[in-house]
């Protein structure tokens, strides 16, 4: 659809801006052009739209150079949406959109046919521009103007849509609405899209392929996975960039770190926490956000949190929406649930075990509640167990260290191994299988790390951190289970 070979072009033949580019964009493809300021994106765009002459090489649109087409033929094939909104006359929105039909109109006195009007109406509905169709274009906001110009471009029913920063003036809702609409046209009408985009994350989500332009040359052409080359991006954009994965769409998303990140004030680990406890909940508050990995009812995943709560529920607690419950309990206590890892337990909270340890320079704190009425041997699949009694081990583990995301996972494994070992040593049995239990059916855990000091990528049993985790978790879980057994025995 768009074929570029050995393209050289720019504003003067002595100093071309585009220096030998090869690119083949297929029919129905969404192609994004990325690159820092001054890398030549607009210049390449102008070459593709025919605003600048090709100095060397070949540039074909549907198999012919752009000069091959008459103005009207070109307008039937290609619609262009640029950042420069240059409409000086007092047109209404509908009049502007109707200009998109001009290349399709026939006869000496061109007028809008029924088909033209139908297409205009359809596009106005899709672009949400119908409601101000009688307004003067000049009186619209930047974002509204952008949408009207997209409507005009789509009304053209082009084969190729060339977009220069199409979402420049748009808020988040309209950015996604516009790109969703373009994607829909790409899918249903095989529209070919060539778009300059500044937002790398938007490009990753919407483009089938993308190119990274630097100094008038392509550094990279490929699908969105090429955006995972953090070092290359950091070099080109001169910003610290980390590629993460979108939680829902399997595409990379890039996180930029500001140059002047203010380091959180270093507080001694022993003074970092405040502790509140009553019959209803335990609340540990950190003075600074901690990096967390957790399967808590709220605050799950890898995030940052300042509050850690364990709520008491009755043995018969049953709820369809425990997340909502915990969020409500937090709100009632003025604890921001977005910053909280929240768990629940039927264990008496006065039985909570708090262990603190210092091994060489490594400081740790474990806060554990344990009930083992629902102890389960996870390796036995034959029998299903329905939790009927107190049966949750909740572990909150705080570490004064700096762990990478991989080390957080590693640390979690270390803690689980230690919990299981504690259960084995106490001969906790799965009552259904009569074998040694490995955990309970609803265990929760959070590892919360201060990110103090140099980052370490390991927290397994071969490291001091891993051993420290193992040691403190073993001790705290053992004590919590013994406390639970004593209470159950006393109550029996
Ligand atoms: N009309 C012009 N005459 C001469 N040089 C120009 C002209 N327009 C742009 N340039 C130069 O061409 C180079 C590439 O500019 P271009 O506008 O293509 O970059 P860009 O990647 O679109 O940048 P931005 O992200 O800032 O829009 C720059 O060095 C710029 O100064």
From TrEMBL:
SUPFAM superfamilies, alphabetized: P-loop containing nucleoside triphosphate hydrolases (SSF52540)
Keywords: ATP-binding, Nucleotide-binding, Translocase, Transport
Molecular function GO terms recorded: ATP binding
Highest taxon listed in the record's lineage: Bacteria
Record PANTHER family: HEMIN IMPORT ATP-BINDING PROTEIN HMUV
Protein name: Vitamin B12 import ATP-binding protein BtuD
Database matches in SMART domains: AAA (SM00382)
PROSITE patterns associated with the record: ABC_TRANSPORTER_1 (PS00211), ABC_TRANSPORTER_2 (PS50893)
Organism of derivation: Sutcliffiella rhizosphaerae
Pfam families (UniProt xref): ABC_tran, CbiZ
Domain ABC transporter: 2-240
